[in-house]
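Continuing from the previous page...

OK, I double-checked the sequence for 2-hydroxyacid dehydrogenase against my notes and this is the correct one:
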Amino acid sequence: MEILAFGVQSDEKPLIEKAFAGQHEVRCLDVFLNKDTAPIAAGYEIISTSVNADLGSGVLQTLAAGGTQMIAQRSTGFNNIDLDVAERLALRVARVSYYSPYSVAEFAWTLAMAVNRRIIRAASRTRDFDFRLDGLLGRDMRGRTVGVIGTGKIGEAFTRIAHGFGMKLLGWDVAENPACTELGMTYVEKERLLAESDLISLHVPLLPATHHIIGEEALAVMKDDAILINSSRGGLVDTSALVTALRAGRFTGVGLDVYEAEAGLFFLDKSLEVVDDDTLARLVTFPNVIVTSHQAYYTEDAVAQIIDATVQNVADYLARRRSDNVLVPRPPQDQGPSFGSARPDPKERP
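Thanks. Re-ran it with the corrected sequence; updated structure tokens here:
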């Protein structure tokens, strides 16, 4: 059987082809699945997609009409998929429920330290042989307070690193993670976490309850010299409100690996085009802001695990087996995703 894979990065292609070798042929495309590219899938029973795919109602209907029966998404997050429509169309949908949480947690800390120690500015200066220290003053992390919003697998890994720095640990989630509690984390109300934390990192999935969890009110509560890191989902942060706060001179630094309007931008080369997103254009001009292109998950270890899980999801579909990766059809009395400590984390991918 030939499988069609959308949104495959150049680094991923040989890994995907090797993983499926001897089992199935795989056709890798670098274009992302959307309403314009969906007709390409006609005749393919199984397709694989990335997290930036558009799997809304219209695209799903096009896929079903073309003969697609199974969608294997190469990510943990699935907020881009209309699960109700997929179920109505009898499409099987599976995701990757687990991959290395350390890839994202370590990258979140990379962003935090980069904005704290002004690494981008320093590296840019030294390329011009400017070795002044003016404007490069950072802060020790030891003894300061970190607030972790979402303490699932990735949040726990982030917390372990914070513990290694010797920081005071505050957490917020719908359920406490015993592993974080053992590290000395105190679970508090979100408003207290925002008000007391020197560094805030987001590790919750994007759900209606978490959309713009960092909005105008939350930003107003935060310390003026706080650091904000988002390596989870762009929709967790109200970017327009964040830009307003940054224009007022607030925050030591902001590190964003995700952006709420990243679809159609991230994973693509737009360097020779005019990008008409005024909010993003303003965001990247601030000297205390780092924006990266949804790469936190992108390590050899995590990508290998994502691909292995995708291969297994295809094998399970063909063998009519069910696993914890299957989103549709849903199990009886499925209550939908939560974001407590027992959940699989939303990040992935990508």
